[in-house]
Design brief:
The protein is mostly helical. The protein has helices spanning about 15-25, 30-35, 55-65, 70-85, 90-135, and strands at about 15, 45, 50. Helix 3 (about 55-65) runs antiparallel to helix 4 and helix 4 runs antiparallel to helix 5 (about 90-135).
């Protein structure tokens, strides 16, 4: 009976700080900051940090969350929920709750900005009219 050697699994692709910075448009300082906040967990090779696919995916989620206005605490909570339950049900449920509140806040901000823009435009038109009268 012939035994075959197990097929080795391919090594996990690792990413350097420079690679992630280029791909995501962030600074090394930002990566260190996210690491210090416990949001990224790079492997250490001496003084070098190496990031795997999980870190890369987490960074994408961190940046998306920041773009939507989530706090780092909220982002960390959502990332931790993913790690705690492989089904992702708690994470997805909580994501909808947090995202719903953020969407409501963004809509309120938009409405307030719309009113402020209209008011500023009226004031500028008034001042422009006054200026035109004084020039003639």
């Amino acid at each position: 009976m012939s035994q075959t050697a197990p097929i080795p699994s391919p090594p996990t692709q690792m990413f350097t700080v420079t690679q992630l910075c280029r791909e995501f448009g962030v600074t090394p300082r930002a990566l260190r900051f996210y690491e210090s906040k416990g949001l990224l967990y790079p492997a250490r090779e001496g003084m070098r940090r190496r990031f795997d696919h999980r870190d890369k995916a987490r960074l994408a989620l961190i940046l998306r969350g920041k773009r939507f206005g989530f706090s780092l605490a909220e982002i960390g909570e959502l990332l931790d929920l993913y790690d705690a339950d492989g089904t992702q049900v708690p994470q997805l449920t909580r994501t909808l709750e947090v995202a719903g509140r953020r969407l409501d806040a963004m809509r309120r901000q938009r409405d307030e900005l719309t009113v402020a823009i209209e008011d500023l435009q009226k004031q500028m038109n008034l001042v422009s009219g006054m200026l035109d009268e004084k020039r003639t």
